[in-house]
């Protein structure tokens, strides 16, 4: 049995609580948040507190709080030599107070409270300073069905950066697709199967191999047509920059 | 029974042949390509030809050839008053020779010969000049299980343009994610579930609502960290432009 205390009550903390709570060999001994209201809903299933001094004994303390609060809270913990981990993609392991054993449990997925999460689709990137702690965190992750990977702070930062490209920036391209289609009262819905297929394709093929379209073919006529259709200068700029990027990648253009 | 002649032997033509051939109420009467070699493999299942003058009678002639060849081939057809359609996202319906009844059957999906296609995930955008032809094309599309939508030439052009954003440009962001992770020997594979989740999210939620991350929050510290991690100036430019785009969309910045 692995015993856990969760700190924070946001997107990540809430999904972790839910999955831990239904996992046989994990017990959530306590749930802390500075503001008890967010925990009210769960007070019948777990001991809740807003007092760091009242934290109970456990194998792992998970700081699922905002990046900026991690260092500070780690310093306020009223014990030492315990395993304390954060869940951030971009906070260094050494930013936490060294009075405790430190680790990172970074779930490489996008969480919102409302959307259900299947933890078998959440790769968990683990970093620790101590080998024994690594094995314990790995066991925790495997218990909830997540694939795990040992990842150091530099690799984790780069994964977090790459996640911004494939998640936030990609989503913004969907948004632009939405704006462009609505402007001609065409339906964005028609693009949804293509969006899904594009994501599925790179599950088994490199993005390099999966590329198609006018930029890769350097089809000047279509590119010119597209630019003349785009009324928004900002969209034009994005069209030009990503077209150049594809040309560079596929040897149609030199830097 | 709907009878069809296919012209062209590329990605689209090949997938159309395969699905028509296994659909009960559709018969492919003949398959034309200027170069017979590409059709050789199919010569036992369908009549093949490389001679436009030898085209046989059918309800629909589908020009699944390169955009630039559509007008030319439509002019060379040795008959008139037949229904002739092309499959392109960006060629005008009026670019085809008016001696025949004209239409468009634009499959809004990405096709490559090797990858299997489920036509229930291929929305087919239909345009015709004549109402009766519209109903026939709709019946053809429904027979292979595809959703259909009546779309005029302006809407189709805009859908084709939006498809470049959500397919080619998105795929290039995946490519950049690949380059960035490899540069730190982190694994691109770890990003694959996130890529899929990002695409799934907008199936039921607008991209506007689905957005998260440092640009939307205007989290200056993380943005600065990310820019300092990016060594490639071209990647930096893309990071800045898409970050600005998200800020504009979410009211964090004005044009
Ligand atoms: N969301 C994701 O998709 C995702 C994915 C991977 C990793 N992460 C990482 O996981 C961590 C949590 O993210 P999240 O999305 O769950 O955040 P969130 O939903 O914004 O929740 C943040 C939590 O931190 C608490 N908090 C903030 N400042 C605090 C302070 N000074 N003292 C004490 N508590 C404080 C908040 O308390 P109140 O309730 O009182 O405001 C809240 O419970 C972050 O490190 C994030 O980088 C997030
Ligand atoms: N691929 C997609 O994802 C996709 C999606 C939606 C719509 N479309 C549209 O579908 C059409 C076909 O695309 P595709 O990807 O199937 O193309 P493709 O694989 O490049 O095949 C093009 C076909 O056109 C023939 N062709 C080219 N120039 C010709 C000419 N001057 N005279 C006669 N035949 C000629 C080629 O003949 P040879 O075999 O002799 O070279 C080949 O059979 C295009 O209008 C395209 O815009 C494509």
SSE ordering of chain A: EHEEEHEEEHEHHHHHH
Q: Show the largest interface.
A: A-B, 88 and 88 residues
Alpha-carbon distance between the two ends of chain A: 56 Å
What is the total domain count of chain A?
2
Global mean pLDDT of chain A: 96
Question: Main sheet of chain A?
Answer: 8 strands, mixed
Query: How would you sum up the global shape of chain A?
Result: elongated
Strand order of the largest sheet of chain A: 3-2-1-4-5-6-7-8
CATH fold naming of the largest domain in chain A: Rossmann fold
Helical content of chain A, roughly?
A: 40-55%
Low-confidence stretches of chain A: none
Derived structural class of chain A: alpha/beta
Oligomer: homodimer
Number of strands of chain A: 8
Strand content of chain A: 5-15%
Question: What's the architecture of the largest domain in chain A in CATH terms?
Answer: 3-Layer(aba) Sandwich
Radius of gyration of chain A: 23 Å
Look at the structure and give the CATH class of the largest domain in chain A. Answer: Alpha Beta
Q: Name every ligand kind in the structure.
A: NADP nicotinamide-adenine-dinucleotide phosphate
Protein name (chains A, B): DUF2520 domain-containing protein
Domain Pyrroline-5-carboxylate reductase catalytic N-terminal (chains A, B): 4-87
InterPro entries (chains A, B): 6-PGluconate_DH-like_C_sf, DUF2520, NAD(P)-bd_dom_sf, P5C_Rdtase_cat_N, TM1727-like_C_sf
Organism (chains A, B): Snuella sedimenti
């Amino acid at each position: 049995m692995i015993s856990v205390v969760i700190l924070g009550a946001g997107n990540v903390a809430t999904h972790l609580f839910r999955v831990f709570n239904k996992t046989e060999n994990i017990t959530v001994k306590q749930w802390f948040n500075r503001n008890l209201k967010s925990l009210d809903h769960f007070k019948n299933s777990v001991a809740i507190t807003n007092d760091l001094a009242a934290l109970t004994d456990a194998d792992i303390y998970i700081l699922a709080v905002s990046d900026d609060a991690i260092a500070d809270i780690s310093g306020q913990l009223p014990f030492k030599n315990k395993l304390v981990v954060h869940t951030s993609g971009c906070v260094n392991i050494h930013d936490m107070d060294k009075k405790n054993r430190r680790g990172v449990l970074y779930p490489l997925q996008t969480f919102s409270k409302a959307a259900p999460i299947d933890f078998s689709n959440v790769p968990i990137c683990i970093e620790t300073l101590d080998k024994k702690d690594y094995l314990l965190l790995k066991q925790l992750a495997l218990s909830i069905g997540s694939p795990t990977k040992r990842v150091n702070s530099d690799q984790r930062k780069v994964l977090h950066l790459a996640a911004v490209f494939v998640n936030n920036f990609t989503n913004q391209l969907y948004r632009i697709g939405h704006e462009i289609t609505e402007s001609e009262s065409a339906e964005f819905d028609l693009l949804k199967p293509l969006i899904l297929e594009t994501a599925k394709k790179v599950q088994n093929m490199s993005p390099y191999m999966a590329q198609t379209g006018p930029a890769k073919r350097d089809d000047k006529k279509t590119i010119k047509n597209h630019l003349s259709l785009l009324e928004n200068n900002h969209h034009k700029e994005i069209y030009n920059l990503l077209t150049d990027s594809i040309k560079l990648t596929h040897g149609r253009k030199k830097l």
